[in-house]
């Protein structure tokens, strides 16, 4: 089973969206499990202090290394340690495959300005970003990492072929999809037809058309993926 340990000041945020749909079913089926550890439970003082002002001055508060370490040490099997941060390596499908193959992950979710660098260094946390924008905390980022991993776990997605054809698995964005009705009129009266080739029954031609669509949409939207 894929075990995810979360170190967070907001354990009640979990499982959140991961309790629904595909991930929620997989959680019920025990294909993955999580433990949300409240970092505040490991504060040593009577005020349950988890953060302090930064050395050197500046805005915001920084989470204390001793409190985070105590929370980490409470885990019997932390596995691969990840700190969600916009400074990290940007998550991509290759890293998702790697993480999904681990028996356990421990994801540290920061709040405030961040966490003391020393606890990241001392415990070899890998910093992972979900993209070039800044969230108010690591929890939604952790959920995104988890969602991307969970759908790859054995038995979670029924149709194995789906995972092979989707965006990024072949380095390209996915081709467009169509279903019934074959002729559809939008509310403003404009007709939209399904591309004829998809109704031809010629599977060779369909595969060729889809590959061409994939290449064109990748060239237009994400030329960086073509290298
Ligand atoms: N925490 C705040 N912003 C983040 C981001 N972009 N990725 C990961 N964790 C974050």
Q: Can you describe this structure in just a few lines?
A:
This protein has seven helices and ten strands.
Give a verbal description of the structure.
The chain is 30% helix and 21% strand. The strands form 3 sheets. The chain has a 5-stranded parallel sheet, with helices on both faces. A 3-stranded mixed sheet has the order 3-4-7. The chain has a two-stranded antiparallel sheet with strand order 9-10. The longest helix is centred in the C-terminal third of the chain and has 19 residues, at 203-221. The protein has helices spanning 21-28, 65-73, 93-100, 117-122, 139-150, 160-165, 203-221; strands at residues 2-8, 32-38, 51-52, 62-63, 80-90, 104-109, 114-115, 126-129, 183-185, 191-193. It folds into 2 domains: 2-150, 3-Layer(aba) Sandwich (Alpha/beta knot), CATH 3.40.1280.10; 167-226, Trp Operon Repressor, Chain A (Orthogonal Bundle), CATH 1.10.1270.20. Helix 3 packs across helix 5. The protein is of the alpha/beta class. The protein is built from 7 helices and 10 strands. The mean pLDDT is 96. Adenine is lined by residues 84-86, 129-131, 133-135, 138, 141.
